[in-house]
Design a protein that fits this description.
This protein is an alpha/beta fold. Helix 3 crosses helix 10, helix 3 (62-72) packs antiparallel against helix 11 and helix 4 runs parallel beside helix 5 (103-112). It has twelve helices and 13 strands. It has helices at 6-28, 52-56, 62-72, 84-93, 103-112, 166-180, 184-187, 197-205, 216-224, 255-265, 271-279, 294-301; strands at residues 44-48, 76-78, 98-100, 117-124, 135-136, 138-143, 157-160, 190-193, 211-215, 233-238, 242-243, 246-249, 282-287.
Length: 308
């Protein structure tokens, strides 16, 4: 047998190793290097920010969830969570698959996971303060008999809703503070979070606070349900229109699942969908995308003005 000199042998070994390198790489590559598979859960969980009539009666959405279950051939369950932040964390952790969020909650969670996608919102019946089917307002309300004005609210007690609420926190902190040229915490003697829009309205009615920022849609619901009379409240300030709450899904759900979810939402002739819409005083679902909430994102990212 022919004897190879050391240099010759080393060269042959090097050539053989290079030839086998792709195979070694395939075995040694970490799992994260492979394309991530989409999620196909055995059941889907639907949740929502704690506001409006869904908070008191999640069963209003049951016809829609039943239709989704039948179309997807998996259970779709409603999950009630105690705060805006809990719904956001559920989406980020994967324990919530579909959610109805406030605009500010959506833009916050999208910043953490840009695969979370808005796909629909409600075209609602006109509330008592707005004629726009896909928008609502942030309202600063006081008791009708209080004789308070914006100027005389200085040093009084104010209720916000939740740090992730759009009309109950973001708009007041960013925009109303510019109107009064001061941070809310400097203008009012006490600023607290009630947890829900309904509780803020009722806190004003019960004289627990002097004023509150709430959504026009929630104030309308509380009045129409007879929990307060319209003439009990006075609106001191009204924001520009705010885009209505988006329905979102996790972007890691498999494409066919997301497509079927959208198909159900945009099937107006479906009696189950119609029942869920009627229960929310709405006429139809309309498509939305991330760009529809740019105005909210711009407010969150803005550091101009006296807001804190």
């Amino acid at each position: 047998m022919k004897n190879y000199r050391p240099k010759r042998f080393a060269a042959l070994v090097r050539v053989a190793f290079l030839a086998l390198l792709p195979a070694f790489a395939a075995f040694a590559a970490p799992a994260s290097a492979a394309p991530a598979a989409c999620d196909r859960p055995a059941r889907l969980h639907f949740s929502f920010s704690p506001q409006g009539n869904l908070q008191d009666n999640p069963a209003l959405l049951q016809p829609l969830l039943t239709e989704l279950s039948d179309v997807l051939h998996i259970p779709v369950e409603s999950v009630s969570l105690p705060s805006y932040g809990a719904v956001i964390e559920g989406l980020l952790s994967g324990s919530v698959d579909i959610a109805k969020l406030g605009p500010a909650s959506y833009t916050s969670v999208h910043q953490s996971d840009d695969t979370i996608t808005p796909f629909a919102t409600l075209s609602a019946e006109a509330d008592l303060f707005s004629a726009l089917p896909t928008a609502y307002y942030s309202l600063l309300i006081v008791r009708q008999q209080s004789n308070l004005s914006i100027e005389s609210l200085k040093g009084k007690k104010l209720a916000l809703v939740d740090p992730d609420s759009t009309s109950g926190a973001l708009i007041p902190l960013k925009l109303f503070s510019r109107k009064i040229n001061a941070p809310l915490t400097a203008y009012f003697s006490r600023v607290g979070y009630s947890g829900t829009h309904q509780q803020s309205v009722l806190s004003v009615a019960a004289r627990e606070v002097d004023a509150a920022f709430v959504s026009s849609s929630t104030l309308t619901t509380v009045i129409r349900e007879g929990r307060i009379r319209r003439d009990e409240m006075r609106v001191l300030w009204k924001s520009d229109p705010i885009p209505r709450d988006p329905f979102v899904f996790r972007g890691h759900l498999c494409p066919d699942i997301r497509q079927k979810i959208q198909k159900v939402f945009f099937s107006p002739g479906n009696p189950r969908v119609a029942a869920a819409l009627a229960a929310q005083s709405s006429e139809k679902f309309v498509p939305v995308s991330d760009r529809d909430y740019k105005i909210i994102r711009d407010l969150q990212e803005s550091d101009r003005g006296p807001a804190n």
